[in-house]
Amino acid sequence: GASGSGAITQQSICGAGGTSLCKIGVQGPGGGLIFFVDYNDQYAGFNYLEAAPMGWGNGITVISGETTGSSTVDPLLQWCSDTSTGLGLTAWDKSAVGVGSTNTSTADTTCTTGAIQAASDYAGGAKTDWFLGSIGEMMLMYTNLRQAGVGGYSAGRYWSSSESADSFAWYQFFGSGSQSDGGSKSNTSYVRPVRAF
């Protein structure tokens, strides 16, 4: 994590008003839920992953064929405005935990609408460091929040920032927990931004 000094200790910077220890399922500084704690200091630059809160996309701008979010349903968006160009995010290292932010930054130089753009533009909790999680990060979100019955997730496909081919990206299915590399970028899937801190 950020400390670089071995295993981390939980910090009292989470919960409403920063009064709770940061642990899975607790409200994070951005108003969402913590879904990963790097207890063993495996990842450089962050100790926690936070999912945006339910209702994060309420009223966002969408293009034809997409649906805006509501207070209880995540938006359904295409992956990117460019649905046929590979952006160099297909290698296995682009699927790992800890790379969603870099993936999103890379794709955001091309995408003007869709999941990448919406996640990058989100500024909930007065935080501007939100991104679209990698497929590894989305699996953690599914495992630690959806399976626990918290977070208000739909039982459908959620985009990741990991590509599988020029016109395809990986998605995490929040019904069964399966993953697929066959998500056509022009199809719509649910979107839930992530931040790391």
Number of helices: 3
The helix content is: 10-25%
- Low-confidence blocks of residues: none
What's the total number of strands?
8
Placed side by side, the strands forming the largest sheet appear as 1-2-8
Question: What profile does the largest beta sheet have?
Answer: 3 strands, antiparallel
Strand content: 15-25%
- The termini sit apart by 9 Å
What topology emerges from the helices and strands here?
Blueprint: E1 33-37, E2 48-51, E3 76-77, H1 100-108, H2 114-121, H3 135-144, E4 157-165, E5 168-173, E6 179-184, E7 189-190, E8 194-196
Helix pairs in contact: 1-2
Please characterize this protein's 3D structure.
The longest helix is centred in the C-terminal third of the chain and has 10 residues, at 135-144. The strands form 3 sheets. Strands 1-2-8 form a 3-stranded antiparallel beta sheet, with helices on one face. The chain has a 3-stranded antiparallel beta sheet with strand order 4-5-6. It is 14% helix and 19% strand. The termini are close together. The chain is an alpha+beta fold and 197 residues long. A hairpin with a 5-residue loop joins β5 and β6. It has helices at residues 100-108, 114-121, 135-144; strands spanning 33-37, 48-51, 76-77, 157-165, 168-173, 179-184, 189-190, 194-196. The radius of gyration is 16 Å and the shape is globular. α1 packs across α2. The protein contains 3 helices and 8 strands.
